[in-house]
Amino acid sequence: MKEKITISEIAKRSGVSLATVSLALNNRPGISAETRERVLETASELGYIVKPSGQFSCGSLKTIGMVVKTDRGTTPQANPFYSKVLIGIEDTCRRIGINLLFATLPVDNDNRALEIPPMVYNGMVDGLLVVGTFVDETIDTFSGNTHIPLVLVDGYSNSERFDAVVSDNFHAAYQAVEYLIQKGHRQIGLVGSEENSYPSIKERRNGYLRALKMNNISKMMIAPFNINKSHGFNETTQLLQEHPEITALFCVNDDAAAAAMKAAQALGRNIPADLSVIGYDDTYIAANTVPTLTTMHVDTLALGRAAVHLLALRAENPDTARMTCTIHPLLVERESVAPLKS
Predict the structure, then answer these.
(1) Homologous superfamily of domain range 63-167+299-328
(2) pTM, 2 dp
C-alpha cells in the first residue's frame, strides 16, 4: 500500500515552510502566486490530492467559459501553440476549483469570429477566456450586454476595454533579429506576415523592421503571406531566388521556419553553413526540424495560467483599470543559426 504523502514531505521538496504549504493547499492569502504554484505542482508530483476550495483564487468565479479559435480543418488541441495554452488554463482551473466549459470559435483567415458560441450570451458562465482571436464588434456587443468579465488570451480588440495576456512579440522579434546581427548577418530576410496581419504577427514584423533600422540596415527583404493560408514554402523559395545574397531568415513562427528551411534546402542552401534560420514560439516543431531550430520560446503554459488568475482578479475588482499581462519570450539556441563566414 502506498504511503500517505505528508505536508512535511511537500515542504521539504518545495523548499518552503510547513506554514507556506498549508496556505497553498488551502488556497489562503499570504504567499506569492509563484510560491503557491510551486507548492501545488510539487504536491501533484508526489501524488497528494489537493481538495479545491477556491476561496482565495476563484473569488466569485464558479464556472468560466474557454472560447478557443479554430481554423478550418484543425482543432485547437492540434495547434502546436494553443494546445499548451489550453493545458495551462485547464490545469489552473482544476487546481483552484473552477468549473471549465469549452467551446470552439470558427474564425476567418484574419482570425475574426464567424459565429458566436451560445455560452457567450446564455448565462452559463461567470467569466470568459477568449483564446487566439480578434474580438470584433459582434463579440464586443454580446460581452457588453452580459456584463461578465472577459480576458483575451493571445487575443486583441480595437475597443481596448478587455484585459489581456499576450506575448511580448515586438521586443522578442527585435531580440531574434539582433541575435542574427550579432552573429555577423546583415542580409536578413523576413518570412511571413503582411502589413495588415493579425496583431501578434504584425508586432513581430515591426520588431524585425526596428532591429534593421537601429543597426543601420536599410534593405528589407520580406516574403509576405497570411500564415492562416500558407506555410510559406513557395514564398520563401521566391524570396531566396530574388535575393540570393540573404544569409539569414527570421520567421514569424516555427511552422513558417520549418517550411523556409525545406525551401532553402530544396534550392541547395545548407543550414546553417550558408543560411541561418530562426523561428518563433518554440513549439514541438522546433525540436524536430533538421537541423533543430533556434527560436524564441513563448511560455504558453504561463499564458493560460495567467489568464485564469487575471480573470479572477477582474471578477473581484470589476472597476479597476484595464490590465495587460505580458509574457516575455526567451531565446533558445539550437543548430539552425551560425556566425556568418568571413
Answers:
(1) Response regulator (3.40.50.2300)
(2) 0.79
